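Support request, please re-run this one:
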Amino acid sequence: MKYSLEEYMTNFLRTYTEPFTAKEFSNGLNSLGFDVSTEEVSMFLSTDCRVFSLQRNMFITRAGAFLNQVFSFVPSQRELEQKLFIPGDRFMPFADSEIPSSTLRFEFLGHKLPTKIFNTDCNYARELFTLYGDEYISQYIAADPACKNLNLAENNFELPPKLSLTGIALDEVLAREEFNFSGRFFARVKNWDKGIIEIFPIPEYKENPFQMDEIDVARQKWNETLENALLDSFERMGPCSSMEEQLANVFYENRKKLCVPSCGSISEFLHITKKVSLELFGVETRLWRAGEEIPAVGSWNDNTYGVGCDGTLPFYVLPDYIIDNLLKDQLHEKREDLSEIVKKLQTWQGNLSQISPDVIGLHVQLRNKFVKKNYNWFADFSNTALRKKALDLYSRVRNLLHEMDCDDGDFQKLPQQELITLSQLFTHISRILEILADDEECPEEETYAMTLSLEGMDSNFEDIKPLLISAADSLKKKRFNVI
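Re-run finished. Output below.
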């Protein structure tokens, strides 16, 4: 079977565990018949979330970075009473975040631990998925096989009062008398790609539970190390694209101090620390300095409003899937005048681009040949209404930025949370349009979910628009001096 370049690269990044250079990677791809330069590979690796950049132009995959690194977690009394634990967010950032935690495989002394159902209430369930962010918790819980009959879309994405989760059975572990079990487990990832994690209980015993011993002191030091490392990452990296990415960078950079026998857990740390907490970041959640509003602009992005991996405004970019959606919309209505699309693209670009209309027109013609060749009018029928709504909101978001007409310095003076929300809306709308560009026909349930999501985004957009326009107008007035 012949594999594509993307399949080879994905397999490599999921399974290779040794440090490597971009040149070594490109040489390997070239030997397989793919013509990829070292510069192209280096650019790809520097922006891929599955890779950490090292010194001397070296890289290491997540699969290699967290292989066999030690961390710990503490099941709750409620879980121990039922002799199980819920994976939830406890294995973040060590396990692959793309693998639903309910499907991770756990081993004890070489044996796979079976699963068992844990019945609980929605509030307790949400606590077990805190690090995914309040805005995504429901979706992660719904992905659990034990929730296969849960239809979030039909319930406006609200969890029912009672639900079931997939737990990992601890009967075999707790039955072993040689373990003086304290309630804490060590864990280490044996296979990142396949999601295999080994666990074993920590035999800790305290003669006086009210008096600190050596392990308590060491764990207190661990909490201080994690706290300082996070505060440093906020200053250097700002709010990463997710809490998972923030933690991944911190734990990898500080693995010699954090992945140690005296390690605590992130959950315990968040209950102890006074300096770090979960803070709102637009419509999402991030780890940040406790009680502080997370700014859109800071030293980590050179005081420019750059939220993309390359540090540029996401609004500057017009990827092909946006153009493809415009073409599909036109094809569905059986209109052939491509100049309408060129004019719309020019409007969206505004004064943000120096690309000439002729260049844009040529590119639209090339995309039209590709889209037209594969277009199926009947299959596309179910996507039409959703695509129109997404393109309409996408257009209004881009036009809002054009109306604001701010330079990099002015972005710092705009309402930061509203600015962040605008960027996040743009990202989510773009993702919907990317799905619509790729899929011939979206499943009915997925279409319904995206429609509800768009309605929520539309409401958010209308809430932030007047605040941003008002602030931008005030800035424009200050640019002019009265003579």
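Confidence is low (pLDDT under 50) at residues 304-314. The first strand starts at residue 20 and ends at 21.
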